[in-house]
Protein 1
Amino acid sequence: MYQAQSPDEEALVGAARDFGFVFKMRSPNTITIEILGKEETYELLCILDFNNVRKRMSVSMVIIILGFVVLVCDCLAVK
């Protein structure tokens, strides 16, 4: 079961699940997701929690299969 930190995060994870990207589990150093029926584990390099100055949360991880680093951001549109 996924414990979201905010309603926005819960909605994002729910929508991803509906499109075939399912959160499975997380350890301190990895995250496991199911992508269209295939389970994959990624190494987490760094997590920058959401704060009011940056207005976003970021996660950097290694995609082991492809061997490059990806930065994943969740951000708000700022007016």
Note: Residues 7-75 form one domain.
Protein 2
Amino acid sequence: MQLSITRFRTVTTGVLTGAIAIATSACSDSRLEKLSTGIGRDSALAIINEGTSGDSLARVFKQDSYWLQNKKGNAHVANILYYSRKGAKAAADSTVIRGATTPIVIVDGKVLGWGWTYYDSLAVANNIPLAAK
């Protein structure tokens, strides 16, 4: 018996949605719970910086940018915002600490996903350096 393409996509989408929900619920941060895929970078920043004044990057520990190339040869800009619940900023040593930050992956200005599980899968698929565990 062969699955139809539509059914396969539906099952795959359901599994991915469930995995994202589990990965993000483990963080248990009310700001992260308000994020959703597809929202713009500015909206994501407004959500994670709720309650701060002035600085649009108040709770961003640091950010990295990468070029991602798809199979068609098109390049996309990936911006990784390392969200810090406490508002810590990267100093001279900008080593990302997994327990203190949560990566938010933004591609072409839209939130694609967040959490270390999501980041790690994106990093492996696109030869992006993994953060130390």
Note: Confidence is low (pLDDT under 50) at residues 1-27.
Protein 3
Amino acid sequence: MNMKNLHAIVIAISIGLFVAGCSKKPANQATHSTSLPPNTKDLGIVELKNNEPHIYDLGDGKDCIVTISTTPPPENSLVIDFVIEAKDASGNKQQVGNPKVSVSPGHAVVVTSGDTSIKLMPKLKTN
């Protein structure tokens, strides 16, 4: 899959999540989504300091390094950089994906790179 297709997929998923986030349903009402890719790793709420990377174990020899940064006002959105690494046959880590998305605070995000899908709710630590 080339980077152009990857970017299109990430943008399509982000737009879908944005539209879903604008729903009029109460926040505590359960919704069931069948649009998530199978075996999506849900990291839950990811609370990080600005520009401070954190490594998450995805299983099967894969890791994901997540870094959150902010955009200046008036946008005030969060830019989330993902670096997905997998061990090769020799046991060495190789980067297999590097999706980046921008999202408003309080909205979940799903990214897919190859056969790896990750869902999270970004939250910026203030202290």
Note: Confidence is low (pLDDT under 50) at residues 21-32.
Protein 4
Amino acid sequence: MDGLHITMAFFASAILSSFTDWYFFGVLFHDRYGNTPGIWKKYKDKADEIKSITISEVILSLSSLVFILVCSHLNLLTFEASICSALVTWIMVPVPLLMTNAIYIPMDRLIVLSHALGWLSRLVITALCVSCLG
């Protein structure tokens, strides 16, 4: 992948993944966040919440950029290779982190599930962007 294709894959992934992040991290099982109110941040106002969401999206987009760069560097540009890489990355990184956090932090299990699915969707979308633009 050249720089243009990496940039296009990054922006496509960032835009598409922001919608799945909104669904999996914000909408799906939203009422379950109230089951453990001491865990989640209380916002002063809507602007404070938007600031947190923006920072989170930047961090999540950086992880997608790293995934794109690794796929490009290792020549994992086919559909099969990029999807396989996404699944391996998902099983290696966010799933163990979320599961371990769920053991020690009283998070509702459906929230843990929705966060895991959110990460899976982000990685699969990024993999699809790699394979389509690679």
Note: Helices lie at 3-27, 46-73, 79-92, 94-104, 109-133.
